[in-house]
Amino acid sequence: MKGIISILLVGVGGQGTILASKILTEVAMRQGYDVKMTEIHGMAQRGGSVVTQVRMGEKVHSPLIEPGQADYIVAFEQLEGLRWMHYLNNHGTVIVNTQRINPMTVITGAAEYPSDALDQIKASAPNMVQLDALEIAKQLGNMRVVNVVLLGAMAKQTNIAKEDWLAALEATVPARLLDINRQAFQAGYDAA
Amino acid sequence: MTKALLTGNEAIARGAYEYGVSVATAYPGTPSTEILENIAQWKEIRAQWSPNEKVALEVAIGASIAGARALVAMKHVGVNVAADPLFTFTYTGVNGGLVLVSADDPGMHSSQNEQDNRNYARFAKMGLLEPADSQEAKDMIGHALMISERFDVPVMLRTTTRISHSKSLVELGQPQDRTLKEYKKDVRKYVAVPANAKVRTGIKQQRLQEMAEFSEQTELNHIEWNGKHIGVVTSGICYQYVKEALPEASVLKLGFTNPLPLKKIADFAAQVDQLWVVEELDPLMEDQIRAAGIKVHGGKAKLSFVGEYSPSMIRKAVLGMGLEDDPSANAPANASTPALAPAAAPVRPPVLCPGCPHRGPFYALKKNRKRVTGDIGCYTLGASAPLESIDTTICMGASIPVALGIEKARPEEVDNLVAVIGDSTFLHSGITGLIDTVYNKGTTTIMILDNSITAMTGHQHHAATGQTLQGDPTSKVDFEALCRAVGVKRVRVVDAGNLAELDQAIKEETVVREPSVIIARRPCALIVKQTAPRLKVNHDTCVGCRMCMSIGCPAISHADKRSTIDPALCVGCGLCQQVCKFNAIVVEEGQ
């Protein structure tokens, strides 16, 4: 709908999409937007595909993002990016972490991991930013900040002031982890 | 005014705090679990996990009769368990207001069925509220308690996953007074014997008429006028979808949906060209509207009887076009660009975690070629490849009686039969099945997969963890003593991470001519801090036999005829070491 920004966060259970969505909604509230967020818990937590949907704007009715509607997709993993690509609208941006996590169907040999997942995403995305967020997080010394690295990369693609993102980060992340998360955000921002 | 971004569940908890709830109970179940977890933060509310939904409702009923406002929360299938007290409580009525939160799951994101619990409200003749966002979820707790006390009836607040687990902005208010209502012994009201119930059933019918009048008057059911061509009657999350999909339509938004305001609906219908009824799952409103002689232009037949709805689906059904045809929409900027087709991507089903203590028992059961009746919990994932060790899953507690039924039908197969059930599920409704097995001379083997927590719903305490909802120490059910007390003579405890022990126990217990219980114990890998050293594959000794792949551990992958362990995922449980015949899996040095 007009004036609404729709963001899809997709990944694998345990990758930290939920905290990322929390920061995003905090950013939205700081812009004075109405905001809705929906996600699926339960069975999907156990290493399955997870998706969080965030919509912000003057007035948001439905929390759902439908195929062809997402302005941004933040893919925490290549295959998940590929799975959700058709949700991107035709001027949308995908931010993709080049990390690969094999699903059980690949581990058991029932399916093959598409080796050209990144190329397929690139071919269909109007705008694409790719980065190895896991490697960046490792270099920072904390593998858990992959989510904030990716948010930093996304932040650079938006018109929202960097200060607002950092303020949202401060309001969301526990104080003792603020430093590392600030570094992660900056590293993602610089890598994008 | 303070505003907060809350999920529907958080908002319901806030509503309980603000609207004077004194007692709150639940058994965990997606998508309802976080309601009680959030209520637990307010010490003004005595909140607890009960062993199952029936008990939870009965405790809430006691609190209501004693004069307290009470809330009980459960997932949709939990209401089946609680149905017995519920149907009689609508006869006796309340003292303090009672709200039952039923969290339905259209689309079955995390459930075994998608039953529409609005039917229960109609069946039991109780009030029904359906919030459309978190603000309403909070406010409607207040309405529910008011309606409950005014009409002397329990009230259902029915959410769906998209309400329970979606966040939207909520204005926070101040908590109101928590004074209990006076308790007076009233045998004719609260003792449901035939003589009293015969009187109460007439009162119940009278009350339904009074609630129907209220339904016509209340602002919970209101019209939002726009164009007069299309008029939509809708409730719950569908209201949001309709507002987004059909900005030109007039909407009769129903928040109080049992009994329906049929006069208001008829009046609305008379003023629009086309009346649509938009509701997920059963045609609960539509059937009643049609039965009242009101012409419905479109409803279930043009939408769907199953699964979740969405704005584009509604737009297609009503206007014959999707959101992509909406000129006011953002997308597409260039109409000549075709929408992307979904890419072919291998599915990523949920899996047992690295180090999960359920992996060993399922591996051992598969190796021994057992027929396994399963139950509800993380261990239901033992049905998926490569473990594929479960034959049946029906509902909470069904594993043990279903095994007994198989034994009764095919006594010759009993040596081949094992029932598996988790610790929390056993406490919920497994014990009666075990008693039935002993009493009716069953000889099946029952395996309690004891990971010492309610894991699937996010690690809630239960009567055998030794802690309450608030984390306070309390007594602890002794599973071994309990099984012996109901008459099981063969009770043995094994380490769920030790394949040799599991194998021996399964072999010995399945052949004996009496019921036996194997308690396979090891705490959930997500709540116990990793102490074992991580493992790695020695590629010099690995022969690429893929034996380690048969346990289905997400930390192990196989490529170029060699297995590899992902150090970021391995928790050092050692199960893969036990299946490797070439000692190729070793402790990673330098940890």
Folded structure, characterized:
The complex is a heterodimer of chains A (192) and B (591). Chain A is of the alpha/beta class and 192 residues long. Chain A has one domain (5-191): Pyruvate-ferredoxin Oxidoreductase, domain 3 (3-Layer(aba) Sandwich). Chain A has helices at residues 17-30, 78-84, 104-107, 117-124, 133-140, 146-155, 162-172, 178-191, and strands at residues 5-12, 34-39, 49-57, 70-75, 88-97, 127-131. Chain A has a 6-stranded mixed beta sheet, sandwiched between helices. The mean pLDDT of chain A is 93. Chain B is α/β, with parallel strands linked by helices. Chain B folds into 4 domains: 3-217, Thiamin diphosphate (ThDP)-binding fold, Pyr/PP domains (Rossmann fold, 3-Layer(aba) Sandwich); 221-325, Rossmann fold; 359-521, Thiamin diphosphate (ThDP)-binding fold, Pyr/PP domains (Rossmann fold, 3-Layer(aba) Sandwich), CATH 3.40.50.970; 535-587, Alpha-Beta Plaits (2-Layer Sandwich). Helices cover 34% and strands 18% of the residues of chain B. In chain B, the strands form 6 sheets. In chain B, strands 3-2-4-5-7-6-12 form a 7-stranded mixed beta sheet, sandwiched between helices. In chain B, α3 runs parallel beside α4 (76-92) and α14 crosses α18. The radius of gyration of chain B is 27 Å and the shape is globular. The interface between A and B is large, with 62 and 61 residues. β2 of chain A pairs antiparallel with β8 of chain B.
Write down the Rg of chain A. 16 Å
* Envelope shape of chain B: globular
| Helix/strand order of chain A, N-terminal first | EHEEEHEHHEHHHH
* Helix fraction of chain B by DSSP (H/I, runs of at least 4): 25-40%
Number of strands of chain B: 22
How many separate domains of chain B? 4
How would you describe this structure in keywords?
heterodimer; A: 192 residues; alpha/beta; Pyruvate-ferredoxin Oxidoreductase, domain 3; six-stranded mixed sheet; 8 helices; 6 strands; 40% helix; B: 591 residues; Rossmann fold; five-stranded parallel sheet; 22 strands
